[in-house]
Design brief:
The complex is a heterodimer of chains A (303) and B (234). Helix content of chain A is 12%, strand content 39%. Chain A is mainly beta and 303 residues long. Chain A has three domains: 2-155, Sandwich (Immunoglobulin-like); 173-257, Immunoglobulins (Immunoglobulin-like), CATH 2.60.40; 261-303. Helices cover 73% and strands 0% of the residues of chain B. Chain B contains eight helices and no strands. In chain B, helix 2 crosses helix 4. Classes of the chains: A mainly beta (303), B mainly alpha (234).
Chain lengths: 303, 234
């Protein structure tokens, strides 16, 4: 477990402050502009046991800071003071760098899409707890935007009784209609999901191997991916749906990418064998012809 | 019942032995020819040795080349049955080995054809003998490189690894060309072969014979007579 520095100080982010512990906001007039970026959060389960390890992924798409650095923070509340997750009982085990444990991570070069994952330890006491994300533009751009759907955790033991039982959240249901689990795919493949929810779907994410490929805020929930961009073998595709209440569901399928056309490869191999053999024969034939011509000339043969 | 693996090992050792013999003998004959070419500048003992050695080595080289060529074909057949076809075509190293073995077999076929077509008389032509020795060397090296890939399959390394490294060839990647390029290369090569044959027929070079009528006379240094067809068209 990584210990935290107490009372993280507040920084101004307009020029970037590097990865560090920060509080929500910037404490001044900077970052008052609303960024066009979409900030989304995702976690595998919203009900966690006290002290359990939780992974929180923040996906940022779009924004004005392309090709510059970009800051993303996770906080426990949207107030400028005491918003650090540690003030809400959370302990950051690892930040997206995989080395340090800050709540603010600064990406050196942002290319229009970023997926950042924090590993945290849940509060040790039972109860409700929330985590928010904010994107802060670096590079002097005074924009910021918050995740519109924070993660609302329920920290409790699996069999904990809080008195009146809480109603089961109406999480969205996701049915991946195609392709099937474990299906070999190649070339362009369409992933089609049916998502049902009593609440309005806020957004959906299509994630391959932990990387967000696309997001949608409305149906139809179909995505076409180019499998040639991935290596041959198994890849995990997750469809994540988050409704307006922040309740999330995840559907996962494993696809086997197989872009090597064995028939074509075999034809090319046989054709190469024939080409090489004919090439050798042609090369030898030309050389023998030249040798015979030279021999005939040297010995007085009339050509 | 003898397994195909055992037969493959047998034929592989057979062609290796025959080809090594052929390579050594043909190189020895080539060196002997060089010694005899400079016989007036060297002690007579050397030319006597060279003359005696090449008499045996030349025939042994031809026999070795024929035996090795047959052994290569047998190795290919037994190898195809010794390995499961799935294993054969799932590894780029195996596919590259088969490619090089086929190329080596074709090259040894050219060596055998050259010697069979021109007979011992080919040594009377400097250009033909240089071609014969050079092609034998290239064929031997090609089969050696195929054997290097075989060593990779069995023990994971080969003493010829530096050769691959210098050549910048990744043996784990298929050496196959693209289908279109391979077909185009095949057509061009086929055209060259046909053009060569047509030209040789037109010029009546296909009936051209170098060397003396008698093998017994050929390797006598005093007899440098070259018997030729009459190309004057009479």
């Amino acid at each position: 477990m990584v210990a935290f520095a107490a009372s993280p100080s507040i920084f101004s982010f307009s020029g970037g402050v590097n990865s560090s512990d920060v509080e929500y906001g910037c404490g001044g007039v900077c970052h008052q502009g609303q960024s066009a970026a979409i900030v989304e959060m995702w976690t595998p389960a919203l009900q966690v046991a006290p002290g359990a390890v939780v992974q929180v992924t923040v996906n940022v798409t779009g924004a004005e800071a392309s090709e510059s650095f970009l800051g993303v923070m996770i906080v426990g509340g949207l107030v400028a003071a005491d918003s650090h997750p540690s003030n809400f009982g959370w302990t950051i085990v690892l930040d997206p760098s995989g080395v340090t444990s800050y709540n603010y991570f600064q990406l050196a070069s942002y290319s229009g899409q970023a997926s950042l994952t924090w590993t945290l330890s849940a509060p040790s006491t039972e109860g409700a707890s929330e985590l928010y994300a904010r994107e802060m533009h670096g590079g002097g751009a005074a924009y910021a935007t918050d995740c519109i759907s924070p993660l609302r955790f329920s920290v409790k033991q699996a069999n904990a009784d809080f008195g009146d039982p809480e109603p089961e959240p109406c999480v969205p249901s996701i049915d991946v209609e195609c392709p099937c689990e474990g299906e070999p795919v190649n070339g362009q493949v369409m992933i089609q999901a049916r998502i049902n929810s009593t609440n309005q779907i806020a957004y959906t994410l299509m994630v391959v191997d932990g990387q967000v490929i696309d997001n949608k805020t409305s149906g139809p929930y179909t995505w076409t991916i180019d499998t040639t961009a991935f290596s041959d073998g198994q890849h995990v595709v997750r469809i994540i749906a988050v409704d307006a209440d922040g309740d999330a569901s995840v559907a996962e399928i494993t696809l086997i990418v197989d872009n090597i056309d064995e028939g074509a490869a075999m034809k090319a191999w046989i054709a190469t064998m024939v080409a090489g053999s004919l090439g050798i024969v042609a090369f030898a034939a030309v050389l023998i012809l030249i040798c015979v011509v030279l021999a005939a000339r040297n010995n007085g043969g009339a050509l | 019942m003898v397994s195909m693996s055992a037969l493959h090992s047998l034929t592989a050792e057979m062609h290796t032995g025959f080809l090594t013999l052929a390579f050594a003998c043909i190189v020895i004959v080539g060196l002997s020819q060089v010694v005899l070419h400079y016989r007036h500048k060297a002690p007579k003992r050397f030319s006597t040795w060279a003359q005696n050695i090449r008499g045996y080595a030349e025939a042994a080289g031809f026999v070795g080349a024929v035996g090795g060529f047959i052994g290569l074909i047998l190795s290919g057949v037994t190898g195809m049955y010794a390995w499961p076809s799935d294993a054969l075509f799932s590894s780029p190293v195996v596919m590259n080995k088969i490619l090089l073995t086929v190329f080596g077999t074709v090259m040894w076929g050219v060596v055998v054809f050259t010697r069979a077509h021109f007979g011992r008389g080919l040594w009377s032509s400097r250009s033909l003998s240089v071609f014969y020795v050079s092609f034998t060397f290239a064929a031997f090296m090609t089969v050696g490189l195929a054997g290097s890939l075989g060593a990779h399959l069995t023990v994971g390394e080969s003493v010829l690894d530096p050769v691959w490294s210098i050549a910048g060839v990744d043996i784990g990647t298929t050496l196959a060309l693209g289908l279109v390029i391979a077909i185009a290369a095949s057509l061009v090569s086929l055209g060259v072969v046909l053009a060569t044959v047509v030209y040789a027929r037109y010029k009546r070079l296909d009936t051209y014979r170098v060397g003396p009528a008698s093998c017994q006379n050929f390797f006598k240094c005093s007899d440098n007579t070259v018997v030729m067809n009459d190309f004057s068209g009479k």
